[in-house]
Design a protein that fits this description.
Helix content: under 10%
CATH class: Mainly Beta
Bound molecules: zinc ion
Order of helices and strands: EEEHEEEEEEE
Radius of gyration: 13 Å
Oligomer: single chain
Largest sheet: 5 strands, antiparallel
Number of domains: 1
Strand content: 35-45%
CATH architecture: Beta Complex
Length: about 120
Amino acid sequence: MQEYLGACHCGTVTFSFEADINELVRCACSLCTKRNAVMATVERRRLRVLSGEEALSLYQWNTGMAKHYFCSHCGIYTFHQRRTDERYFSVNAFCVDGIDATKIPVRQVDGKSRSTV
Ligand SMILES: [Zn+2]
């Protein structure tokens, strides 16, 4: 596994995690479509918020099970705790240092059929 660092746009929220990033995920639900998210899969226990935890806002919708976090200063989506398996987070690939999101295969997932809104 490799260690990665990530941050929101304004730099208030910084985080680190260990993961093997072999693929990224794009989800077709209405939220991921609007935020244009491309995400890396990270185990919850391997993700640490280094700074700005108090600046993170939580957005919940649909069943309210997933926890979508974004920086309350710059508005950038950083990561979310998944609805289907709370042991995993999805991390905004474009917030992560040292990965070229355009060079990693992207898997499309059908989050739309699992949502009611
Ligand atoms: Zn920010």
